[in-house]
Amino acid sequence: MKRRRFSAKKLCCKIIFSLRRIFSKFAASIYKTMMEISEIFNAAAVLKGVARKTSVIPAPKLNPGADIYLKTENLQLTGSFKLRGAYYKISQLSDEEKARGVIACSAGNHAQGVALGATHNGIKSLICLPAGAPISKVEATKGYGAEVCLVPGVYDDAYAKAIELQQEHGYTFVHPFDDPKVIAGQGTIGLEILEQMPDVDSVIVPIGGGGLISGVAFAIKTLRPEIKVYGVQSSGAPSMAASLQEGRIQHLSNVSTIADGIAVKEPGINTFEMCNRYVDEVVTVSDDEIAAAILALIEQQKLVAEGAGAVSVAAAMFGKVPVEGRKTVCLVSGGNIDVNTLSRVITRGLSKSGRNYTFIINLDDKPGQLSGVCNVIGEHNGNIISVSHERINTSTQINGCTIRIELETRDAKHIDELREALKNSGYKVMN
Fold first, then answer.
1. What is the pLDDT of residues 402-426, one digit of tens each?
2. Which long-range contacts (CB under 8 A, 24 or more apart) does 426-429 make?
3. Which residues contact 387 (CB under 8 A, 6 or more apart)?
4. What is the pLDDT of residues 189-214, one digit of tens each?
5. Is CB count within 10 Å lower at the N or C end of the chain?
6. Cβ pair 267, 239 in contact under 8 A
7. Which of 251-260, 292-301, 311-320, 388-397 is least confident?
8. What is the DSSP code string of 212-272?
9. How far apart are CA 358 and CA 361, in angstroms?
């Protein structure tokens, strides 16, 4: 019989995930001892002068039928809310724990928070990042004083590597989301929202591993239980949504999304329990919807958000949660998006929002056909960006051709208007 071989890395991963599932049934009892509202108030006191009290600003154009506001954590120091939880956790370490140095795993934002917090406290830090993390996040982490270890794969692979190194060298581990101190630090955002907008009806929060929404939901529901708290994940990484639906923690085999900051295969034990207790609903949004939200934030609010930070806005824009007639705060959790990614996202966002469209049209291959198409488009205020012409195409007649015309358009209604005008003029529109 052929014996199966497992690498040390794979074996470590299997052991870690198995243990997390075994202990998940004890999450309720863990929760009862891990968090008090006083902890979040203490975190707020520690973070005063370290983390910015980010503004809550109106965003009336994002959804005309709703009263939308943005909690701008993308303008936080390090460009993300993660500074809050990381710094507070590090500030509460014992002298012995600090002396050992800290290690963390991250998709990029927690890394920067840990690096800054450790450097401010005179502590050495080592951060495990997925090899595919945006270069901007990797370089920023190094800039804040941390040593970086790039790990092939996604966040969960970086997590397994960090655990391996922590056990090997005795570092103090700073978990990105499943830690009471980290959760308390993130919960300070909930306190700020209640202070800045006392009459808020609902709050929409991004979810990766669940640390942010756990802290925010706990703070809000403890002080104002009537306020609705909604969580949002990418449809390409719905680990918390799947776990809550099944009633137990689920491990996804793979994740794929432009929202790299929330591409987590498995939620935390503590965060799962807290979401189950305090979050009213968790929904998902597609990558196209996320891209449209990023574009809307740039154009309408002059704000740059990364994919993970924009999911809350996407949920409000595309009606994933009830926002009509409600004063709603969307938490924009981060703005650390790579410029190359941003370029691609803008293109996707333009397409999703009906601002860009490519018509495919079959024509008779004779003089004047292209000119006629262009005239129809011009008469209906379409702006031609590019034209490609194909004579050899098996889908057309021998004496025919295919053209692809990329247009700048106003919205989906404008696209429909152009399509109808082209058809009425006798042109064969294929899409």
1. 899 999 999 999 999 999 999 999 9
2. 427/361, 427/363, 427/372, 427/373, 427/376, 428/361, 428/362, 428/363, 429/359, 429/360, 429/361
3. 370, 403, 404, 405, 406
4. 999 999 999 999 999 999 999 999 99
5. N
6. yes
7. 388-397
8. HHHHHHHHHHHH-TTSEEEEEEETTS-HHHHHHHHTS----S----S-GGG--SS--HHHH
9. 10
Do domains 20-80+180-351 and 82-173 share one topology? The answer is yes
Model confidence pLDDT, tens digit, residues 177-193: 999 999 999 999 999 99
Question: Which of 3.40.50.300, 3.40.50.10940, 3.30.70.260, 3.40.50.1820 would CATH assign to domain 354-429?
Answer: 3.30.70.260
Looking at the structure, give the CATH architecture of the domain made up of residues 20-80+180-351: 3-Layer(aba) Sandwich (3.40)
CA distance 249 to 181: 21
Segments making up each domain of the chain, as ranges: 20-80+180-351, 82-173, 354-429
pLDDT in tens, 278-332: 999 999 999 999 999 999 999 999 999 999 999 999 999 999 999 999 999 999 9
Question: Given the structure tokens 């004890």, which residue do they identify?
Answer: 26
Q: Decide: 115 and 145 in contact? Cβ < 8 Å.
A: yes
Residue 404 pairs in a beta bridge with: 360, 388
Active site residues: 82, 333
- Angle of CA points 206, 210, 214, to nearest 5°: 95
Closest CA to 324 of 228, 407, 405: 228
The Cα–Cα gap between 189 and 168 comes to: 35
- At 322, list the tokens: 């009830």
Is-contact 165 171, C-beta < 8 A?
Answer: yes
Q: How far apart are CA 110 and CA 143, in angstroms?
A: 14
What distance lies between CA 72 and its chain's CA centroid? Answer: 14
Give me 247's structure tokens. 């009633």
